[in-house]
Here is the input.
Amino acid sequence: MSIDRFILRKINTCQEEHTRANLVRLFVIRIRKAEIAEEHEVAYALEKM
Here is the structure.
């Protein structure tokens, strides 16, 4: 199971509000890092053209 699916499953089942908020923050960080990595890949591919 990927870490993203694990985090999403924990967010859905978590009863403690503080822990749930931290999991949401973690997931948002992972999304932002993926977006940045994707932008760098596109920029690198365009440079090679």
